[in-house]
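Action item from last meeting closed. Structure (226 res):
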């Protein structure tokens, strides 16, 4: 979700105004994805690098998150959404951590859209953490080094058990992955759209899915092998 700041700047508004409008786009995207029958939606809400932003902006973003976890979650719950947060929770404030835990617990039994929100998340740090945990298990004699394969590694990621993303959409015209799900996006189709995140609509989601459907996915094989 990129472009909140530019959305605000182009209107002579403070960046916070862009984040507020961005939160409305989150609601449209989540409800839209649920209506379209999508099984998994992962939103990159706040990266481990976003902590470098001015403290006032970080506070605004955390405040928005708090507000969201208190108010919006009931509507998501009514729509059958199951919430999961991935990222480094230790850097989040304790009240947020408990709000997240409460929201995850409340929606745990839902069978609709699984909404994963990446907060204080970084792909490299996730991979390093998985490697550390596997090393600890090897050291403890629980697993043999030879047993470390792609499936075992995947099981130690924060997304363990989730399918890899088929489609990654980045808004605002930037064409980068920016440390998002580095392991998991190995074969994802990437769609970059110029629209800024606060202007993102359900139609944009549908357009991106249409673009995705037109792609020829070979996973390294030739077309005739599939
Ligand atoms: C996206 O918008 C959202 C967050 C990181 C929370 P930005 O804040 O990155 O907006 P730009 O890139 O400055 O326009
Ligand atoms: Mg940005």
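Sequence:
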């Amino acid at each position: 979700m990129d472009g909140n700041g530019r959305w605000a700047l182009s209107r002579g508004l403070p960046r916070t105004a862009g984040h507020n409008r961005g939160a409305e786009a989150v609601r449209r995207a989540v409800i839209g994805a649920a209506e379209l029958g999508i099984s998994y939606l992962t939103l990159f809400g706040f990266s481990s690098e976003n902590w470098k932003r001015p403290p006032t902006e970080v506070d605004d973003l955390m405040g928005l998150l708090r507000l969201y976890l208190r108010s919006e979650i009931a509507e998501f719950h009514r729509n059958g959404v199951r919430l999961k947060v991935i990222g480094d929770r230790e850097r989040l404030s304790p009240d947020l951590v408990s709000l997240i835990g409460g929201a995850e617990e409340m929606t745990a039994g839902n069978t609709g859209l699984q909404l994963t929100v990446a907060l204080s998340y970084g792909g490299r740090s996730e991979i390093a953490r998985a490697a550390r945990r596997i090393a600890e298990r090897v050291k403890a004699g629980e697993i043999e080094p030879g047993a470390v394969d792609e499936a075992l590694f995947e099981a130690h990621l924060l997304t363990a058990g989730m399918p890899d993303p088929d489609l990654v959409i980045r808004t605002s015209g930037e064409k980068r992955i920016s440390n998002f799900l580095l392991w998991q996006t190995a074969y994802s189709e990437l769609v970059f759209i110029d629209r800024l995140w606060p202007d993102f609509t359900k139609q944009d989601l549908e357009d991106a899915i249409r673009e995705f459907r037109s792609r020829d996915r070979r996973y390294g094989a030739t077309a005739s092998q599939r």
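Note appended to the action item: The chain has one domain: 4-210.
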